[in-house]
Amino acid sequence: MAIFSSVIHLGSDPALLGFILRPDTVPRHTYDNILETSVFTVNHVKHTFAEKAHYTAAKFEKDESEFEKCGLQPHFISGFEAPYVKESKVKIGLRFVEEKSIETNGCKLIIGAIEHIYIEGEGLHQDGGLDLVELGTMAISGVNRYHRTAEGQIFPYPRTSELPQFEVEEEKPSYAVYDEESGKYNASLLPYASDVGGPAFKVTDLTLWKNTSAGKVSSHFKSRFEELKGEYQAMIEQFSWNETVYTAKFSFEPVVGETYHLYEKQDGERFLSLIPPDSWNRSHLGSFQLNTEKMWVKI
């Protein structure tokens, strides 16, 4: 499996497609498979797996499967010998017809006759055309730039008897101010002078204003950052003290607004008490009050 950007329509009766194969100065596994089996498939690349399809162009070894390496699934239908790409919404099965050598650059034109076409979803119009937008088919330019398709214009079959009355657009002088949408000259309606004799445009030097304003904004954000930093540190400290108090030992239900004292024994055990630190010789860690939100506030 490999990705090709040069698939072309060669005829409708019989229905033929072709694609350009680069010179076989290096191993071309796709080409070898076609010659060996006489069948191949063409599968539209949908936007949902475009990246996977792109990497099938990597130079894998002959015994390595691009399906496996690129996370795509082979799909065999109706006994056709060549696998389709299961993720594709448009699958075309072809039988190899012939190849044409291009002497100028050593490329080959590989031609196949269409035997099967499978279209999934609502991608087929009543007139037989494909809705590439609905199908999610990608377009490609160059070798690595992919594009989503958009709904384009539809024109009838060109017949001389139905030729529209085309008009050659009048070339306007470079100094004329002409509005294409209204089809009128609108220099008098513009909010600025448009003729060569009008006042010159002067670009205001905003360097000083930008530097001054940027300095004020920077100072504001720096000050605000320091405030938030201080609030954050205070919140972390408050959280830490609440965790310490709530994990300490006490055998009474604390009263909101009452002051309690936190102590630590020699063995590291912490406990909460009503006895103030100046009444006995204990390792005092801090004094706290319980507020209405059941949060300990260090005092």
Provide an overview of this structure:
The model has no long low-confidence stretch (mean pLDDT about 90). This protein has two domains: about 10-150, Pnp Oxidase, Chain A, CATH 2.30.110; about 230-299, no CATH class. The longest helix is centred in the last third of the chain and has 40 residues, at about 205-245. It has a five-stranded antiparallel sheet with strand order 1-2-7-6-3, with helices on one face. Strand 1 (about 10) and strand 2 form a beta hairpin. By secondary structure, the protein is α+β, with helices and mostly antiparallel strands. It has five helices and 15 strands. The protein is flat. The protein has helices spanning about 30-35, 50-55, 65-70, 130-135, 205-245, and strands at about 10, 15-20, 40-45, 75, 85, 90-100, 105-120, 140, 145-150, 180, 185, 260-265, 270-275, 285-290, 295-299.
Mean pLDDT: 90
The first-to-last residue Cα distance is: 75 Å
Secondary-structure class: alpha+beta
Beta fraction? 25-35%
Shape: flat
CATH superfamily of the largest domain: Electron Transport, Fmn-binding Protein, Chain A
Largest sheet: spatial strand order: 1-2-7-6-3
Number of strands: 15
